Structures are given as C-alpha cells and as structure tokens.
Amino acid sequence: MSDNSENNGYWQANIRLVKICLVIWALVSFGFGILLRPMLGGIPVGGTDLGFWFAQQGSIIVFLALIFFYAWRMNKLDAEHGVDEQ
Amino acid sequence: MDQFTINLLFVGASFALYIGIAIWARAGSTSEFYAAGRGVHPVTNGMATAADWMSAASFISMAGLIAFTGYDNSTYLMGWTGGYVLLALLLAPYLRKFGKFTVSEFIGDRFYSPTARMVAVICLIVASTTYVIGQMTGVGVAFGRFLEVSNTAGLLIGACVVFAYAVFGGMKGVTYTQVAQYCVLIMAYTIPAVFISLQLTGNPIPALGLFGDHAASGEPLLAKLDQIVQELGFNEYTAHHGDTFNMVLFTLSLMIGTAGLPHVIMRFFTVPKVSDARWSAGWTLIFIALLYLTAPAVGAMARLNITEQFWPNGTEGQAVSVEQIETDETYAWMQTWQKTGLLGWEDKNGDGRIQYYNDANPEMQERAAANGWDGNELTNFNRDILVLANPEIANLPGWVIGLVAAGGLAAALSTAAGLLLAISSAVSHDLLKGQLTPNMSERAELMSARIAMAVAIAVATYLGLNPPGFAAQTVALAFGLAAASIFPALMMGIFSKRVNNTGAVAGMLVGLLVTLVYIFLHKGWFFIPDTNSFTDADPLLGTVKSTSFGAIGALLNFGTAILVSKLTAEPPKHIQELVESVRVPRGAGAAVEGH
C-alpha cells in the first residue's frame, strides 16, 4: 500500500465504484421518481405509471441492490489489493 | 372482552417481553452498553438497528401523510431509505475502521480540536431534541387512543412513561430487546395491511396489492382511488401537484439527514469488522424496506376505505348520515377517535349527513351550492391517527387493533428513549465531563445525565403540545438539521485530507445556524407557536420549505469548510496519516472507549 491514497489503485477503484453507485442512486430516485417521471408517464404500471412506482417502491429496491452490490464488490477489492482484514 | 382490555393486554404483554429480555441480557460496562452489536450476527444487528431507527414518524405518521397527499409525499419513502446508500458507501466502513464509539469523538480526533468536538456535540443535541419533539407528538397520539383520553392527557402520560423507560436505561442498548421490538413493530404494521389488501384487492402482499386491481370494481386500485378523490374535488392521488424543486430538495435533505443522525451511525462503529459494516447497512435497509414497501399501500388503501365510508352510496349518491355514524358498528372508530380530539365532524347544514369533500375546489363549491352543502363537514382528521385507526376503519378483529397499539408504542418509545439517552450522554459525558468540569465525579456525571434527560423531555413535551407539524414533518426538520451539520463534517473528514479544524468548525456552525434560523423563521422561534415571520405555504426563499432547507444547509457547510480550509494551514502530518488509515480496512481493531 502506498502512503498516498490519491495515487493508489485501491482508493481510486473505490472512488470509481462509489461514483457509479451514486449515479444510479440519483437516477432512480431524483431521476425516475421525480424529474424524469414525465418521460416514464407512458409506461403503465397498475393503474398509474412507472415513475410513480419508482417513487414509491422501485427506488427502495434499487437502493437495497446497490448497498449489497457495493459491499460484495468492495470486500473483493479489499482482498485483491491485500488490504482486507485478516 | 372490550377493545380497551384487549389493547391493555397487548401493550402490557409487549412491555413484559422487552423488560424480560432486558433483564435476561443486562449490559454491564459502558463498552458493553455501546457495543451491544459486537458478536451479534449482522442480520440480527440489522433488525435491531431497524427498530432503533424506525420511530413514530415511520410507523404512526408517514402513511397518513402519503394517504392524504398521494404521490408528492413519496419523498418520505425515497428520502428515509436512500440515506442508507450514503451511509453504506460514504461513512459506515470508515467510521468502523476509526474504531471509537461516538460521532463527536471522530470529529474531535479527525479535526484535532476540542472545539470541533464541542460544536459536533451541540449539533447532535439540537438535531436530537427536535427529533424527540416529533416522537412526543406520536406518543401523545398513541397514548391518547390507547387509554381513550384526550391527546394532551395522552402526551403527558406518555412523557412520564418515556422518562421512566429512558432512565431504566441499559435496556436500550440491548440488541435482543430491539429485535423483539422490531418483531412487534413489523407484525403490527404488516398484519392489518395484509388483511386490508386481501379485502380490497385479493392480494395478500400489500406492496403488490397497491398496483393490483380493486376487487369490487375490477379497475386498478390506484385508478379507482384517483377517480373517487377527484370526484370529491381533491387532487389526483398519483399525480404531481407540488413544486418539483422543493420535492427534490426535501428528498435530498432526508437522505443526507439519515446518514448524519448519531444514533444510527453509532451502530456501525461497533460491528465486528469493516466488511460487516458494509453489509449491515444493507441488512438494516432490508428490515426497514419491509415497512417502507408496505407504507404506500397502507396509505392508498386507507384513503380509499375512508372515502368510501363517508360516501357509502358512491360519490354521486347520499353522504353517510349522522345517525349511521352514531349507531353503526362500522363507524365505531369515529366515536373512539373523537375522544382524542384528533378527529372531528360537524353537520354544518343540518341535513343529518356528513359531506366530506374539498370545499376549496370551485367545481365542488358549485355542486355544494346546488345540493345545499355548507362546506366540508369532516372538520378535523389529524394525519397522525391514520395508521393507528386503520384496522378499526377496516373493521379488523380486536386483536389486530391491540397489536397495532403495541407496535405504535414500541416505535415511539424505543426511539424517544434512545434519543434521550443520546442527549443526556452528550451533555454529561461530552460537554460537562469532557469540556467544562473534567474533574466531575461519576455520581455527579450520572446526576447531570438524569437532569439533562428530564429537561429534554420537559421541553419536548411542552413543544409537543403545539408541535410544529405532524410527527413525520417535525422529524423531517431534525433530519434537515443533521444533514446541514453532521454529515458534511463526517464525509469531508474521510474523503478530504485538506479540510482542517478551522474549516470543519466554520462549516458546521454555518450549516447548523443558517438551517436553524431558516426553520425558526417558518416554524416559530424555538418552535414557539406564532413567533414565525413566514409560513411553509409562502416561504422566504422561492419555493423552499423549511423542511427542505437541510440540503441547502449541507451545501453551505461543504462550501464554507472547503473555502476556510484553503485559506488556512493544512492539517498536520499525523492527521493526514489518520485519514489514510481510515481509508483501508486492514488493521481494524476492536472499537475502544474514548477519553
């Protein structure tokens, strides 16, 4: 492990992963649930549209998937870079 | 057996269970108390954290706010779950690696300054106290109904119970008590929802029933709901009506606030390993999601049931008669809730019927004039009663009603007691012993903790009598304060090596003060009614309501901290090394008690 995490692969890979996850996080909630809802207005789901579903349920399900994906991916990264807990 | 006895039995049995578990697994030392999560399976720990976090706001209040507003209040659903993503990705694993017990200790160490620690403590006290006010509102509703007294009497009795519960102390830290509380809470929430979903849609899973077909009409449930609420002049349930910018800001405030509240973050300090800290946020969210995926179904179905009860012959037919309300068993819930003062109706035009409609809608005013109506006659329907009244509205068996009463109390009491403990330890341990009177004896410390708790509960009860909003709205203000003060300091402490002590302190102060002033301007100074200069209907800044300001406060906090740090010296070498070490999991020891 190098002293400066800005230049080391582990920290950079982590930051990249966090960024990707946060983009999806924002897309399903602020995006599909609120701002982009008019675009999804044409897709019917149970008497309303997909945007409504994302706002009330879909985003929560994606949040769960994101957290478990991140945990799984990071625990693998820890091992690959030899910084996991022994 | 009458309903009052059944309620008493359920509430009594659930309390006996919690106390029994608490005695069986009593926490001894401070570190056992804080580290109740150690050695516990992450799934169990997740369940306990979920119980800790889901309060009166989630259980009692949220579905009611969704029911009467519809889509626009999806903000609560996204906001209070989305925060866990921030927590899992940006804070939990690093704070676990740091290895101390409290948020203020991390801020004090990372920003190498007792001042920073003290400012963090003040931020925590302000946010937690606001949070307790919201809980007390919920406690008042729950006790008022359950003891069949007025809301005020319920609140005062509830305050005494909360105080006793918090002083009893250690039981809060015992993971297994919280697991039991979670089980009671989630059963109490989902069982009535399953019954109602079966009645309305034939689907036993409420979350799916919400998007299913309404059995009686064959139309999709939400389409049916949209139709009947619009026929009474209300806003279309599934459509967007409010201001979009405010909706985004409000959701963001709740998300950031979730990741900035001390009693949740604390749980992640003490899981066995860094990798577990990542998983446990996920497990916690699974258990929270069980309630949060059900809540929108509870809201929509209750709205449909209520509307149909007031218009038993359809929205074009005759409204329900006063006689029917007074004699028909189906309407018994209205009699019981009237006693709390949170539900009221009045036959204004004296036609012997209660017309429930939106009297602010011009089209409805025309219809009212044609039919001789004299305004909406359902004069008061407090949003916070919806979840507790829901099983009665749907005529579910008495034991379900008793179970819901027990669940509501579990949610409100556990969180209120936990927050009071956090406030009292912040005052006695961090402020007094840590800063002002370091030589204080252990007895004096304990005494000051009790006094702080009593003061906090007195303040919260007083303000709870005239709350700044419904339970979930008041709690949202607390999230805004946490978002504006704590979260940015924690995040910068991990992701920036350049932010120094002066920057962090300036950032926290600016975030907290600006947000607090904005809230006070709209909700009254120190939440005292009628001292406000603006209202949320017509806020100071454009469309930004006081509940949504936390996100702006957080932005100001980030900006100030970065700017001030740039102008001042960079943090010393050993602090930069501390940040480096927090960033990698290797070498994480057990959490240790701070000074």
3D shape of chain A: elongated
Helix content of chain A: over 70%
CATH-assigned homologous superfamily of the largest domain in chain B: Sodium/glucose cotransporter
User: How far is the first residue's CA from the last residue's CA of chain B?
Assistant: 56 Å
Question: What's the average pLDDT of chain A?
Answer: 90
The quaternary organization reads as heterodimer
What's the number of helices of chain B? Answer: 24
Q: How many whole angstroms does the radius of gyration of chain B measure?
A: 24 Å
GO molecular function, one term (chain B): symporter activity
Pfam families (chain B): SSF
Organism (chain B): Marinovum algicola
Keywords (chain B): Cell membrane, Ion transport, Membrane, Sodium, Sodium transport, Symport, Transmembrane, Transmembrane helix, Transport
Could you describe the 3D structure shown?
Chain A: Keywords: Membrane, Transmembrane, Transmembrane helix. Chain A: This is Solute:sodium symporter small subunit. The complex is a heterodimer of chains A (86) and B (595). Chain A is mainly alpha-helical and 86 residues long. Chain A has a domain of 58 residues. Chain A contains three helices and two strands; from the N terminus they run H-H-E-E-H. In chain A, helix 1 runs antiparallel to helix 3. The mean pLDDT of chain A is 90. Chain B has two domains: 391 residues, Sodium/glucose cotransporter (Up-down Bundle); 80 residues, no CATH class. Chain B has a two-stranded antiparallel ribbon. A two-stranded antiparallel sheet of chain B has the order 2-4. Chain B is globular, with a radius of gyration of 24 Å. The N and C termini of chain B lie far apart (56 Å). About 1% of the residues of chain B have low confidence. The chains are: A mainly alpha (86), B mainly alpha (595).
